[in-house]
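Hi support team,

I'm opening this ticket because the web form for multi-chain structure prediction keeps timing out on my end. I have pasted the exact lines I submitted so you can reproduce it. The total is 478 residues across two entries, so I didn't expect it to be a heavy job. Is there a limit I'm missing, or should I split the entries? Thanks in advance, R.K.
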Amino acid sequence: MSLLFENRAFVVPGDTLAEGSLRLGENTYRLQGKIYAARVGLVEYSRGVVSVIALKANYEPRVGETVIGTVVDIDIGAWRVDIEGPSLALLNVTDVLDEPFRPEMVLPKVFDFGDVIVAKVVSMNRDGTPLLSTLGSNFGKVKGGRLVRMTPSKIPRLIGKKGSMVNMILKETGCQIVIGQNGIILVSCGDDEMGELAIQAMQKIENEAHTTGLTNRIYEFIREMKEKGKR
Amino acid sequence: MSTNKRRLIVDQVRLDGRKLDEIRPIKIESGVLPNANGSSYLEQGKNKILVGVFGPREMYPKHLADPHRAVLKCRYHMAPFSTDPRRSPAPSRRDTELSMVIRNALEPAIFLERYPRASIAVFAEILEADGSTRCACIVAASVALVDAGIPMRDLVVACAAGKVEGEIVLDLNDIEDKEGTADLPIAYMPKLGKVTLLQMDGVLSPEEFDKALQLALEGGKKIYELQREALKTKYAKQGEKGSIEPI
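Hello R.K., no limit was hit. The queue was backed up. Here is the completed structure from your submission:
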């Protein structure tokens, strides 16, 4: 067993990270006994696991995640939703209205083409298509606000430990923020300036996602900008 | 009149002042197109190439989707203003072939089997052409694929070598390609040591072939460093060593 990089060093796909019987973490693969990086990021060695913290990753849906997507097609008894994953997601009528589909139902009256919706991934079809649901509070059609994009792999930083980061932004700006794990974030705010500030804070998080003490720095940033706004 | 013919190599120095085993100056930038999932811009001598990557996303038309792996779609296209005289903007037979060649060179490096039924699209636009554009496209496309966050086995580097006026030279430009007697483009995955493209036109003896191959592989190594550097410039700044905190 040998580690070939320093912990948290920058790696690109194809870099040999380690040799020997270590377990594979995220964004790595094994070939002929060696472990290689599969995405650009920072290597992490911890307790027998080698992984790469991706600095950029495409979205791969997982069961239980909240996503924000756009309705792009209407089938019989189901909507097709673009959640920017490898395939379109399926949203069945039964997962929206909590009643079985009847032919006289008019689907566009519920969600029409181009509607942005907040939904939850409830399961995966056998062919890998994610199945969504909008049952429950906080889900359904988006009525207003602004959409912001972030690399999906950086969403955990926006949330922070037990939601510390996003709660801090909520408290400081008074905005409502819905985070889609697919990298789309909905910011709705009564005060336009505060909305703008929340978005700026998110851009700062994206750029500095992997630095320490980020929550404090973002807090200082928001405070500072608020002071400037008052003057 | 042979006396009027311009010589391409004088005292081991080429027309543009390069040595025989020297590559052209290369500049690579990643993440230049905000609307694409991943992108890169490459300048290699007078070559100027822009690459955009989209996906993995739904495959259209659906009947062409592969139930076992993602489909890689490549488009190599030369802009009408990329050559002198102007070139027709319609894709030519050559464009179609190079699209296929680039696709074959990139496919082994991507984990296509992770995204069944999906498609990944690579669009390479040649803004200015000056020889070895297929190699330059592969170099730029692999940076753009990494920038798109698509899982990859390795980067792919590509470099050409050839024979001009009896000498084996590295990284041919347009005149050398046209006046020369052989051209040998090669693409490979440097860390895994696997060749993904090897073409040759013209005539080389087995010894010359070996020499050209070695030269192209050496050139590839230099280009690999530049690809790394391009990604590092864009991403490493975000996570300087020792500054991450676990989430």
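A quick check on our side: DSSP finds four helices and twelve strands in chain B. Let us know if the file doesn't open in your viewer.
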